[in-house]
Amino acid sequence: MKHVIIVGAGASGLAAASRLVENGLSATNITILEAQNHIGGRVHTVTNDGNPLEIGAQWVHGQQGNVVFEIAESAHELNTDIQTLESSGFAENVVFGFEDYKLNKEQVQQFMQTVHSLEEISKSELSGWNKSFGEYFEEKFNELIFSKCSHSEFDRSTALAFLDWYHIMENVIDGADNWKETCGSGHLHYKECSGDPLVTWKRGYSTLFKILMKNLSKSHSDQQLPLSDRIFLNKAVTNIDWDSEATSEKKIQVTCEDGSLYPADFVLVTASLGFLKSNMHSLFIPALPTYKKRAIQGLGFGTVDKIFIKFAKPWWTTDWGGISLLRRRSQEADSHWSDHLLGFYTVRLHPNMLIAWITGKAARQVESLPENEILKVCSDLLRKYIGADFPFTEPVGLILSKWFSNPFTVGSYSYRSMESKEMNVWAADLALPVYDSNGFPRLFFAGEATHDCMYSTVHGAVETGWREADRIAKYCIGFHNAKL
User: Fold this and answer.
1) Which of 43, 87, 85, 92 has its CA nearest to residue 68?
2) What are the transmembrane regions (predicted)?
3) What are 342-378's pLDDT values in tens digits?
4) What are the helix (H) ranges across 238-397?
């Protein structure tokens, strides 16, 4: 029986492992090496005041055609009420405002209608667009919105402020530092699942892994798959010696930071694209083929962080969903990191918290700052924007995701970059196996960045884990039910 090593115990790695076992491979022939002290990868649920808090993946994006939604719904682990208001800059109970002025509902509605119109128009126009998504959106926004400025309730500066806010929102969605780094035509690669785009879990996103490994109580699931004992934590892989000139009988040697060695017939790499960008030259012996290195280089991978701000008690009203920060454009060349905060929004199940989203260079900068400095800046902003509306009190602490500083993620999720287009490299190139000199596959790749159309999502990651498990199945003896 062939032995499979899976590098990474995130969504794709655990999905692949469970699929291999379901297809007939003994769990004893699977080894899962996880660099961190917990499973989940970029799905990371922690407990705060007795309730789940998502440091990583926040929502199940859509319902129809979403395998994570199907898995979770069948286990009755999803909240059934519509969650589109939670922590969302588009929520109806969220205020849009400057420090000295709040937009009225009619103004916000006008801007939103313009944005939605552009989103619909872009579906037919972006395929022939050779420049960035940002250049497309700015050009079309100017055409649509500024023609209305003379007879509408908002002026040019307000329109520009909303455009800048929407730019940050798109960066949060896509993961790019700047929407001029996002490929316009590549933007169409992404496929949305219809239905509620912001579904939440009852007990946190990490429940997914208990379901995948059949680890829930008998009332929820079938017998537990024997996978827990095959996951080895704190096993950072430093190199994979796959020997391209060897015959298929020679084992691949996987070495960990602690000096431990693991032999395998096949290695499935599920590490983030950010990790591969930082480590591909030292991780693989011999070096990866050129097409694979080009794919790793060309595909985009950015940083999106969350700042959870704690207060002793909520000072806002229960019908207030947060504030999206509008700013008048400055002539200064350099901006402060706080200029890239999307806004402050309420957090489901955490009534004494607000969440602020931040991306790109600003997010990477925040990760290196002391907590008291971040709190002071956020406190000053809140006081300026809404201090006159509520009996504001100072925050008492924060929780900050640090996805770029984490050496095993080096960022948050992937996107289709302008470099992808220029190099003509896409997810399919990253997903291809690497073969030895005899044409026998040795290295396999999974993870959200390898998905053609559901990249940057957990359901995309799960699908790629299943895809590679089925691909590996063709080369493993003893499979009877492989879904090929």
Assistant:
1) 43
2) none
3) 999 999 999 999 999 999 999 999 999 999 999 999 9
4) 273-283, 290-298, 360-366, 371-386
CB-CB neighbours of 341 under 10 Å: 23
> What pLDDT shows up at residue 220?
40
User: What are phi and psi for residue 149, nearest 5 degrees?
Assistant: -60, -30
Tokens read off for 443:
């290295």
Cα–chain-centroid distance for residue 184? 20
DSSP state of 148: T
Amino acid identity for residue 146 in this structure:
F
Strand ranges inside 1-88, DSSP E? 4-7, 30-33, 45-48, 51-54
Do the bridges between strand 304-310 and strand 300-302 make them parallel or antiparallel, or are there none, so unpaired? unpaired
Residue matched to tokens 């972006």: 126
Provide the 3-class DSSP secondary structure of residue 338: helix
Q: How far is Cα 106 from Cα 126, in angstroms, rounded to an integer?
A: 29
DSSP string, 262-292: EEESEEEE---HHHHHHHHHHHEESPPPHHH
Homologous superfamily in CATH for domain 4-43+200-300+414-473: FAD/NAD(P)-binding domain (3.50.50.60)
| C-alpha angle 87-91-93 in degrees, rounded to nearest 5 | 100
Rg (CA), the chain: 23
189 closest CA partner among 463, 423, 422, 449:
449
Domain ranges of the chain: 4-43+200-300+414-473, 107-189
With residue 445 as reference, give the H or E element that holds it.
strand 441-445
Which residues, including other chains, have CB under 8 Å from residue 224's CB and lie 6 or more apart? 213, 214, 215
Structure tokens at 295: 């794919």
- Give the model confidence (pLDDT) of 106-149 as tens digits: 989 988 988 888 999 999 999 999 999 999 999 999 888 777 65
Number of H helices, E strands in the chain: 13, 20
At 242, list the tokens.
Answer: 């796959």
CB 248 within 8 A of CB 440: yes
Residue recorded with tokens 């405002």: 97
Residues paired with 76 in a beta bridge: none
CA distance 110 to 164: 16
- Measured CA to CA, the distance from residue 330 to residue 94 in angstroms comes to 25
Q: Which of 353, 358, 351, 342 is nearest to 395 (CA)?
A: 353
Residue with tokens 């924007």: 385
DSSP 154: -
Helices (H), 313-370: 360-366
Task: Write the pLDDT tens digit of every residue in 176-187.
Answer: 999 999 999 999
The pair of three-digit structure tokens given for residue 265, joined into one six-digit string: 């017939």
